[in-house]
Design brief:
Layout lengths: L12 E6 L5 E6 L3 E8 L2 E8 H6 L6
Antiparallel strand pairs: 1-2, 3-4
């Protein structure tokens, strides 16, 4: 299972923290994905959708 939104394609990115001593700590920032039962091509199925797509109304819930 990928950590990617099935509507907009949003996926994890790499981000870096810079400490006081200038050590760079690389970590991943993952999108806020929710599993939602939605209507896709007339059939209801479970898809992973980010919360920004849910708030924008890009998904029609079943």
């Amino acid at each position: 299972m990928s950590k990617q939104c099935e509507i907009c394609g949003k996926k994890p990115i790499k981000a870096a923290k810079l400490t006081f001593s200038h050590k760079q700590i690389v970590h991943t920032q993952e999108p806020n994905l929710q599993t939602v039962k939605a209507v896709v091509n007339g059939v209801s199925k479970k898809i992973k959708v980010c919360t920004s797509c849910l708030k924008a109304g890009k998904v029609q819930k079943a």
